[in-house]
Design goal:
Number of helices of chain B: 19
Order of helices and strands of chain B: HEHHEHEHHHEEEHHEHHHEHEEHHHHHH
Helix content of chain B: 40-55%
Mean pLDDT of chain B: 91
Number of domains of chain B: 2
CATH topology of the domain at 71-244 in chain A: MetI-like fold
Shape of chain A: flat
CATH class of the domain at 71-244 in chain A: Mainly Alpha
CATH superfamily of the domain at 71-244 in chain A: MetI-like
Number of strands of chain A: 2
Distance between the termini of chain A: 21 Å
Structural class of chain A: mainly alpha
CATH superfamily of the largest domain in chain B: Periplasmic binding protein-like II
Radius of gyration of chain B: 24 Å
Helix content of chain A: over 70%
Oligomer: heterodimer
CATH class of the largest domain in chain B: Alpha Beta
Shape of chain B: globular
Distance between the termini of chain B: 71 Å
Chain lengths: 296, 420
C-alpha cells in the first residue's frame, strides 16, 4: 500500500519541507535568538552588548519578587487548569445527555472561548468595578445589598478574580475536548453495563473515565501550556500591581522588559518559562508514547 | 499558475528596486512621533492642518527630503524604539519623554550639530537645562504640560468647605467629604500605578520640600521629608480619603471619576478641561495650587517631552542629513505650524515665538504659562532616572500599599540606586 502511494523515498520529506521551513524561521530561529540574548548584556535603550554569562539569570532569580511570582504562577496554572478541567468534564457530561435545546446550550458554551481574552477581561473588569460596575448595580437594584461592595478590596481578592476569570474562559475548551471523546464511545458499552447492573457512578468510573482519558490528557497538557503563557487577563485587570503581587511569570517578564526596560533579566526569565514548558511537553510525550507502546 | 507566480515575483523585484532608487535621491528621514491625543495622527498624516497634513506640507516645501513619519501610541513607543535599536534600525528623529538611556549608549547627536542657532535661542532656557548631560544638550523640548489641583465646585459648595492649601486642610476637606457622602464620593484621586506613580511621589515630596534629589543633584530618596510625604499619602489612602485601588486606577480613570462627580479633587495636567469636554462630562470645576505641607513651599509639577536625533554612521552625507534634521525642526517650530500643534491638544509651548499667538487665541494660556514658570521637572537627565522612577512606584508606593513601612522601603531603594 505504502509503496503504491509513495513513489519516491524523498517525497514525504518534500511535502514536510514547507512546515519545517516555517517552523525553522518562526519558531526555532527566534528561540535561538532569545537563548543568545539571555546570556548577553542588553542596555536600557535596547543595544545588545557582549555576552555576560549567567548575570541575567542571577539578577532575575535573586529579585525579591521572584519567589512570589513563581508561587503565583503555580497557583494560577494549577487552579485554572485543575478547576476548569473538573467543571469542563461535568459540563461535557451534561451536554452529552439528550435534552431539549442541547444545540443551543452547546453554542452558548462556545462563547467564552470564542471571544478575545482582552475583551473578556475588560468586560469582567467592568462587571466587578466598585464605582460603576454591573455587579454592584444589579445587586443594588435587586435590593440584595444596600450599598456598593468593593469586590476588589485587596490584591489577594484581585488574584482570585483573575483565576476565576481564567477558569471561566478555559472551561469551554475542556468541555469540547471531553465531549468529542464522549461521542466516540460506543453506546453498546453502556447498554451492557446497565444489563450487568452498573449504576451511574460505576459506569463513570469504569467506562467513561478510562475511555475519555486520552481526550482529557490532551486537553490538560494543552491547557497547561496555554494557561502558563496566558497574558491578557492579568495584564488587563491588575498589570501585576501592587508590586508584582498579582504577576505570573509571563506578565512579570513583560513588565520587566517593556515597562521597566530591563530586557536582560526578562529574556532570561522567558528562557526559564520555555524550559518549564519543555519539561511539561516532555512528560506528555513520555506518557503518550508509553501508552502507544503498551497498546502495540 | 507557475508562470503567474514567476511573473508576480519578477514584478515585486522590479518594484522594490524602484523604491530603492527613489530613496537614493535626496535625504530620507525616519521620524517617530508620539500620539498625544485623538488629533495627533490626523495633524501629521491626515487632514488636520487645514485639509492637508504636516508630512505633505513639509515635503512640498522641502522636495529633496523624504519623511517616513510614524505616529506611535505612548503605550507602544518605548517598546518600538528599543526593538528598532536592538535591530540596528534606530529612527533618525524621535519624539519621546526620556533621553538619558540613549545618551548612555552614545546613540544621539548633540543638538548643536543640527539645530539652527536662531531656533535654539527660541527655546525656553529653563527647558533646555533639563536636557543637558555632561554639558551637552542632547534633546530639545517639543511641548510641556503643568499639573494643578482641580476641585469639583458643586461638591465643595454642598459640603460647605474651602479649597485646601495645606496638607492639614486637605485632610480636613477629605474628612468632611467622607462624612457628607458616606463614602460615595472620594476626597482626592491618587494614581500609584506604573503609569504615573512617580507623579504622585513628586506632588507630595516636592510639597514637603523633599524630592528625588538634594540641592546638589544627588539622589536623596530616603530623606526625612520624603518619608513624611509618603506616610502622608498612605494615611490619605488608609483613612478612606482616596480612591480605593490606587495601584490599578490610572490618572485617566481618576479623571473619569472626577468628571462623573465621584471624586472631589484630582491632580491633573492643563489638558483636563479638554479631556472632560471630549468625554461629554459637564462637571463644574476650578483649579488651585497643589496642597503642600505646613511650613513648606508648594511647587507645581511640570512634564516635558522631547525631540532628539539619532546618529547614523551609515548615512552617505552626514552634513546633508544634519541639515535635513534642522529643516524638519525649523518647519515644526515655525509659529504657523507649531501654534496649531500645541493648541490642538492644549499643551504648553516650548518656544518663545509661540507665546504671543497662543495667548491671543486663548487668554487662559497666560495663567498656565505662569504656573509653568515655577514648575519643577523630573530629573530625567540622570541616567538612573528610569530605575528611580520604577523603584519609587513599584518598590516603595505599591509595597507600602500592601502594608510595608515607608522608611525601610525608601532606605532600600536609596541603597539600590546609589550603592550605599
Amino acid at each position: 500500500m505504502n509503496q503504491i502511494l509513495v513513489r519516491h523515498k524523498w517525497e514525504p520529506y518534500l511535502w514536510l519541507l514547507p512546515s519545517v521551513l516555517l517552523m525553522g524561521v518562526f519558531v526555532v530561529y527566534p528561540v535561538c535568538i532569545v537563548f543568545k540574548l539571555s546570556f548577553s548584556e542588553i542596555s536600557r535603550s535596547g543595544v545588545v552588548g557582549s555576552l555576560n554569562g549567567l548575570d541575567n539569570y542571577i539578577t532575575a532569580v535573586t529579585a525579591p519578587e521572584f519567589g512570589s511570582v513563581m508561587l503565583n504562577t503555580l497557583i494560577w496554572v494549577v487552579s485554572v487548569v485543575g478547576i476548569s478541567t473538573l467543571l469542563g468534564f461535568v459540563a461535557a457530561l451534561l451536554l452529552n445527555a439528550e435534552f431539549f435545546g442541547r444545540k443551543v446550550a452547546r453554542s452558548i458554551m462556545v462563547f467564552p472561548w470564542a471571544a478575545t481574552l482582552v475583551v473578556q477581561a475588560s468586560v469582567w473588569k467592568y462587571i466587578i468595578n466598585y464605582e460603576y460596575g454591573a455587579l454592584n448595580n444589579t445587586l443594588l437594584n435587586l435590593g440584595v445589598i444596600s450599598q456598593s461592595v468593593n469586590w476588589r478590596a485587596t490584591y489577594v481578592i484581585d488574584f482570585i478574580w483573575e483565576c476565576g476569570i481564567g477558569i471561566f474562559v478555559t472551561i469551554p475548551f475542556v468541555t469540547f475536548c471531553v465531549l468529542a471523546g464522549l461521542q466516540s464511545i460506543d453506546v453498546s458499552y453502556y447498554e451492557a453495563a446497565t444489563v450487568d447492573g452498573a449504576d451511574f457512578w460505576k459506569k463513570l468510573k469504569h467506562l467513561t473515565l478510562p475511555l475519555v482519558r486520552p481526550s482529557l490528557t490532551v486537553s490538560t497538557v494543552l491547557n497547561i501550556i496555554y494557561v502558563f503563557n496566558s497574558f491578557p487577563i492579568i495584564y488587563t485587570i491588575t498589570r501585576g500591581a501592587p508590586a508584582h503581587k498579582t504577576d505570573t511569570l509571563v506578565t512579570y517578564l513583560y513588565m520587566l522588559a517593556f515597562s521597566e526596560q530591563r530586557k536582560g533579566p526578562a529574556t532570561a526569565l522567558s528562557v526559564v518559562g520555555f524550559l518549564i514548558l519543555c519539561v511539561c511537553a516532555g512528560i506528555y510525550m513520555m506518557v503518550t508514547m508509553r501508552k502507544e507502546g503498551e497498546e502495540a | 499558475m507557475k508562470k503567474l507566480l514567476a511573473l508576480l515575483m519578477a514584478l515585486c523585484l522590479c518594484l522594490s528596486c524602484m523604491a530603492f532608487a527613489a530613496a537614493e535621491d535626496g535625504v530620507t528621514l525616519d521620524v517617530i512621533i508620539c500620539e498625544y491625543g485623538n488629533n495627533t495622527r490626523n495633524w501629521f498624516l491626515g487632514t488636520g492642518m487645514n485639509g492637508s497634513n504636516f508630512v505633505d506640507l513639509f515635503q512640498a516645501a522641502n522636495p529633496d527630503i523624504k519623511l517616513n513619519l510614524e505616529v506611535v501610541s505612548w503605550s507602544d513607543v518605548h517598546k518600538e524604539v528599543s526593538t528598532r535599536i536592538s535591530n540596528g534600525n534606530a529612527p533618525d528623529i524621535l519624539n519621546i519623554d526620556t533621553f538619558s538611556e540613549f545618551v548612555a549608549d552614545n546613540l544621539l547627536l548633540p543638538v548643536k550639530d543640527y539645530c539652527p542657532d536662531d531656533l535654539f535661542e527660541d527655546f525656553f532656557p529653563a527647558f533646555i537645562q533639563e536636557s543637558i548631560i555632561d554639558g551637552t544638550v542632547w534633546a530639545v523640548p517639543d511641548l510641556a504640560s503643568a499639573r494643578a489641583l482641580y476641585y469639583n465646585k458643586a461638591i465643595f459648595d454642598e459640603v460647605g468647605i474651602e479649597v485646601p492649601a495645606t496638607w492639614g486642610e486637605l485632610k480636613d476637606a477629605c474628612q468632611a467629604i467622607k462624612d457628607f457622602y458616606a463614602g460615595d464620593v472620594y476626597g482626592i484621586g491618587l494614581d500609584l500605578t506604573e503609569d504615573e506613580g512617580q507623579a504622585t511621589f513628586a506632588y507630595f515630596a516636592w510639597g514637603n520640600n523633599g524630592g528625588f534629589t538634594d540641592e546638589n543633584g544627588a539622589w536623596a530618596l530616603n530623606s526625612d521629608k520624603n518619608v513624611e510625604a509618603m506616610e502622608f499619602v498612605m494615611d490619605l489612602i488608609n483613612s478612606g480619603y482616596a480612591n480605593p485601588s490606587p495601584s490599578t486606577q490610572t490618572r485617566y480613570e481618576l479623571q473619569d471619576l472626577f468628571g462623573a462627580g465621584k471624586l472631589a479633587m484630582v491632580i491633573a495636567p492643563n489638558q483636563l478641561p479638554q479631556y472632560l469636554a471630549e468625554k461629554g462630562f459637564t462637571v463644574d470645576f476650578v483649579t488651585a495650587d497643589i496642597p503642600h505641607n505646613e511650613g513648606a513651599t508648594g511647587s507645581s509639577v511640570g512634564v516635558m517631552d522631547r525631540v532628539m536625533a539619532f546618529k547614523d554612521d551609515a548615512a552617505p552625507d552626514q552634513a546633508a542629513r544634519n541639515d535635513a534634521i534642522g529643516r524638519f525642526l525649523k518647519f515644526f517650530y515655525d509659529p504657523q505650524n507649531y501654534v496649531g500643534w500645541v493648541s490642538m491638544e492644549t499643551f504648553l509651548p516650548a518656544v518663545n515665538s509661540a507665546v504671543g499667538a497662543l495667548v491671543e487665541s486663548d487668554p487662559s494660556f497666560q495663567a498656565w504659562l505662569n504656573v509653568l514658570a515655577n514648575c519643577r521637572f523630573y530629573p530625567a537627565a540622570n541616567a538612573q532616572w528610569a530605575d528611580v522612577r520604577n523603584g519609587v512606584v513599584v518598590d516603595v508606593e505599591q509595597r507600602a500599599l500592601t502594608g510595608e513601612e515607608v522608611r525601610p522601603l525608601l532606605d532600600t531603594l536609596q541603597t539600590k540606586i546609589t550603592g550605599k
